[in-house]
Write a structure and sequence with these properties.
This protein is α/β, with parallel strands linked by helices. The chain is 44% helix and 16% strand. Bound molecules: 1,3-dihydroxyacetonephosphate and iron/sulfur cluster.
Length: 350
């Protein structure tokens, strides 16, 4: 195992990447926390998984692995560590627990929710399955374990199209993100039919339709805020800017942009691209993280949409997670066994 760096060494490393993004006084405080976290990690045989949306000082220091939901799920399934600290939101930590049930999984905040995960319940999925018993249920990983347990196969933003094509069935229930569903429908040539909840009852009139995605009306409160007018305004002011959108944005926004993909796919596109400048339609910490690693690139600093749930995870909370063993993810064995099937089916698709 590598020797733990001193506070001074850590501070110098952080300054090289982040001095234009984070004030030096904050970087110094961060360096002290990072050294503490590294010591605790070693002492407890822990691994830290960090989502691409983590704030810059955290993202560029303590995670052993960084990535999008799919990449981190794969890491969680493979790790040999005793403890997984998931620097991301709760549904991601739950996914890690489902894939590695024998490990202790910690998420540093108990307020790291997700508007998509909150939008649907297991009861809603059961009601939809009653309406369409022959249609497979594809569920975005941005859902809780009880919803995954009712699911045939999960998907992430990076493999949603692949998963729907892999099923090769006429009608698919696709939950819960209506915008991701519309983007998948465009790429798979399927039609969208919305299921609605009226007075507690789920209604959907997809009976006569063929080749459809039956869709729930959930959305991400962060990506919902980007509009076609935003795209037009960038095009007008800076026509050479390459605009990248996460597929949780509305379909008309994605269609108007130059590139769409998972958080890691966007990072790669900027890194490998040769555009004059870039604009990212996604959570804004990711822009800072990209710039820190690509200081020769110009990114339009238009971003003010921070995911309030991802923002709960700080270096201090990560240190406390390891110090006080909090907040441990607990899921019943029955739910784990059911939910794992839907995740494993997804992970088997390459
Ligand atoms: P990725 O799987 O692309 O990282 O997306 C997760 C997410 O929550 C985006 O809002
Ligand atoms: Fe959920 Fe949206 Fe935050 Fe991603 S950005 S975790 S989808 S609320």
């Amino acid at each position: 195992m590598n020797k733990i760096k001193s506070v001074d060494e850590t501070f110098n490393d952080l300054k090289i990447k982040l001095s234009k993004i984070v004030p030096e006084a904050e970087l110094l405080l961060a360096s002290e926390l990072i050294v503490e976290i590294e010591e605790l990690k070693k002492e407890r045989n822990a691994v830290i998984l960090g989502h691409n949306y983590m704030e810059p000082a955290l993202y560029h220091s303590v995670p052993d692995y960084k990535g999008d939901s799919l990449e981190l799920s794969r890491r969680a399934a493979e790790t040999k560590a005793d403890i997984i600290v998931f620097c991301g939101v709760e549904f991601m930590a739950e996914t890690a627990k489902i894939l590695s049930p024998e490990k202790t999984v910690l998420v540093p905040s108990d307020r790291a929710g997700c508007s998509l995960a909150e939008s649907i319940t297991a009861e809603d999925v059961r009601a939809l399955k009653k309406l369409y018993p022959n249609a497979p249920v594809v569920t975005y990983v941005n859902t809780y374990a009880d919803v995954k347990a009712e699911t045939d196969i999960c998907c992430t933003s990076s493999n949603a199209v692949k998963v729907v094509n892999h099923l090769a069935t006429d009608t698919v229930i696709f939950l819960p993100d209506a915008y991701l569903a519309a983007n998948v429908a465009r790429e798979t040539g399927k039609k969208i039919v919305y299921a609605k909840k009226i007075n507690g009852e789920i209604v959907c009139d997809a009976t006569a339709d063929k080749n459809v995605l039956i869709v729930w009306q959930g959305f991400c409160e962060v990506h919902d805020r980007f509009s076609v007018e935003d795209v037009q305004s960038i095009r007008k002011q800076s026509p050479e800017t390459m605009i990248l959108a996460h597929p949780e944005c509305k379909a008309d926004v994605v269609e108007a942009c130059d590139f769409s993909g998972s958080t890691s796919a966007m990072i790669k596109a900027v890194k490998e691209g040769n555009a004059k400048s870039y604009a990212l339609f996604t959570e804004c910490s990711m822009g800072d993280n990209i710039i820190a690693e690509n200081q020769d690139k110009e990114l339009l600093r238009m971003c003010s949409f921070r995911c309030p749930y991802m923002a709960q995870i700080t270096l201090e909370m990560t240190r406390d997670a390891l110090k006080y063993n909090r907040y441990e993810v607990n899921i019943s064995n029955e739910l784990i066994d059911k939910a794992r099937l839907s995740l494993n089916r997804m992970l088997e698709i390459h």
